[in-house]
Amino acid sequence: MTPEQKKLLNIFILGFAFMFMFTAFQTCGNVAQTVISSLNSTDFNGSGYTSMAIIYGVFSASNLLAPSVVALMGCQLSMFLSGIFYSAYIAMFIQPYTWSFYMLSVLIGIAAAVLWTAQGTCLTMNSDDKTIGRNSGIFWALLQFSMLFGNLYIYVAWKGEAIISERDRRTVFIALTVISLVGTVLFFLIRTPASNAAQLIEDEDGNSDILEINSSSQSNMTKALDAFIKSLKLSVTKEMLLLSISMAYTGFELTFYSGVFGTCIGSINWFGADAKSLIGLSGIFVGLGEVLGGAVFGLLSKNSHFGRNPVFLFGLVVHFLAFYLIFLSIPNDAPITSREGTYSRAFVDPSPSLQLLHSSIATTSSCNGSC
Predict the structure, then answer these.
(1) I want to staple 289 with a disulfide (CB 3.0 to 4.6 A). Which of 98, 267, 312, 363 is the partner?
(2) What end-to-end distance do the CA atoms of the chain give, in Å?
């Protein structure tokens, strides 16, 4: 196998590892509040919304320190340990306690920052100027499939279930934990490319020696400090400050469709006994919307005679329209209702097909910003 083939294999392994991990985690986030609302235990007082706020708040703050951690531990070990924390968070729902719920929310926030920083490092190490586009496309295509498989399982497992029983909850989260661990183990199959690990040099006598590129006179702590300083400098550049506005909005949107929207659908009693299973079906349509949006808006941007701006504005209009329709059809108390659900009505009568259409449109149009 040539060095280029080994790098391409690493990209596929990386993509499949993330697909397994986020099949479990994104499905977990999608149903977390619904599961919590169905708990009978008086010892658990946690909130899925609070957990998500902690996760992404810690995630944001930890990104400044993540490059230093990856510099110290290497990308492979960093991704593996991060995957362990992801799996632990999912496994917590098998027997939830308030203290473990919030403690793991903090830890997974830190792990997420390290994981995505290490992922970027791994992708860069296995790419060059000619292959970075291809490799990024392969990785993101595999990652987006994570929204399909886990939510399909939820749709099948919870079909006809008005209340999520303890047995149903444990079955689902045991399966999700195993899936997450499979993705975590796959990180060990990634091998450092030969061109990055070492290079051959010849001395004056013509003998070949191996020079480790990663070894230098600098200590690991010096490398970690340099990475932290570079992160601080990058965060205050003009480009990053301007991008932070759109990134902040993307964060709000991610929080909504990955945790809030599914909870709203599952709490609307007008959908009948299939309300809980519709959470999974909604997640499937979110994944399809992401895949479709990336393809359609990518082609429009590439072939447009007017540049990216018209494509971006078109996606923005569709995006606003989708969220306006969600506003019209979701009852006000749907996100915070109790385990019994809600019979409230919004401005228009709730419809399963309408909500699934919203799921796909909102995420399809959100992909236009990456063109």
Answers:
(1) 363
(2) 34
